[in-house]
């Protein structure tokens, strides 16, 4: 039987030479803590050294682009994972923040020439957020694991500055 996509990917990921930053919002603490924990555990499992994982916080998801840009400006950082969680309420707040953060993270990525991983959950309910954070056993896995994989893969393929790097 053929190996799964994750199994093939596991064999290819090597974060041993990378420095990865995680910036996370402080809102929805239970969800965020689980996602960051998933990121860190996965980064360690693919070889990123503990001392090469930088973790910083910002007040909320709206501030993620500023935190990500500040971390990415450090030449020693190879990729940044921006982690937040928005849960739709009864106002337009959710739509404005999710769109603004999405667009700005993409912009920053191209300005700094480093991968900024979009780790913003945009959920309709708290239950959906808990599921995506791996907090409801058997429903979904922790998406922080996927974001860690993405950071290592992108940093490994594109090097320090993807604007000038060639595909590896």
TrEMBL record:
Q: Which reaction does it catalyse?
A: (2S)-2-hydroxy-3-oxobutyl phosphate + 5-amino-6-(D-ribitylamino)uracil = 6,7-dimethyl-8-(1-D-ribityl)lumazine + phosphate + 2 H2O + H(+)
Q: Name the keywords, alphabetized.
A: Riboflavin biosynthesis, Transferase
Q: Name one GO molecular function term.
A: 6,7-dimethyl-8-ribityllumazine synthase activity
Q: In which pathway does it act?
A: Cofactor biosynthesis; riboflavin biosynthesis; riboflavin from 2-hydroxy-3-oxobutyl phosphate and 5-amino-6-(D-ribitylamino)uracil: step 1/2
Name the Enzyme Commission number(s) assigned to this protein: 2.5.1.78
> Which Pfam families does this one have?
DMRL_synthase (PF00885)
- List the InterPro entries hit by this protein, alphabetically: LS, LS/RS, LS/RS_sf
Which is one Gene Ontology cellular component term of this protein?
A: riboflavin synthase complex
User: Per the record's keyword annotation, is Ubl conjugation included, yes or no?
Assistant: no
> Which biological process annotations from GO are given for this protein?
riboflavin biosynthetic process
The top EC class is transferase
Q: Which HAMAP family match?
A: Lumazine_synth
Q: How does it assemble?
A: Homopentamer.
Family the UniProt entry places it in:
Belongs to the DMRL synthase family.
PANTHER family annotated for this entry? 6,7-DIMETHYL-8-RIBITYLLUMAZINE SYNTHASE, 6,7-DIMETHYL-8-RIBITYLLUMAZINE SYNTHASE DMRL SYNTHASE LUMAZINE SYNTHASE
Q: Tell me, in a sentence or two, what this protein's role is.
A: Catalyzes the formation of 6,7-dimethyl-8-ribityllumazine by condensation of 5-amino-6-(D-ribitylamino)uracil with 3,4-dihydroxy-2-butanone 4-phosphate. This is the penultimate step in the biosynthesis of riboflavin.
Task: Return the protein name.
Answer: 6,7-dimethyl-8-ribityllumazine synthase
Species for this entry: Brettanomyces naardenensis
């Amino acid at each position: 039987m053929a190996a799964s996509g994750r199994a093939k990917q596991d064999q290819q990921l090597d974060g041993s030479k990378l420095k990865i930053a995680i910036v996370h919002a402080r809102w929805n603490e239970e969800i965020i803590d689980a996602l960051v924990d998933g990121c860190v555990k996965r980064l360690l499992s693919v070889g990123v050294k503990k001392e090469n994982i930088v973790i910083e916080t910002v007040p909320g998801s709206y501030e993620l682009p500023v935190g990500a840009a500040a971390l990415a400006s450090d030449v020693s950082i190879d990729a940044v994972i921006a982690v937040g969680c928005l849960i739709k309420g009864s106002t337009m707040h959710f739509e404005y923040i999710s769109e603004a953060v999405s667009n700005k993270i993409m912009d920053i990525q191209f300005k700094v020439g480093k991968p900024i991983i979009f780790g913003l959950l945009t959920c309709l309910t708290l239950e959906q957020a808990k599921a995506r954070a791996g907090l409801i056993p058997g429903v979904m896995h922790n998406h922080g694991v996927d974001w860690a994989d993405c950071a290592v893969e992108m940093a490994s393929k594109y090097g320090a500055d993807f604007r000038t790097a060639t595909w590896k």
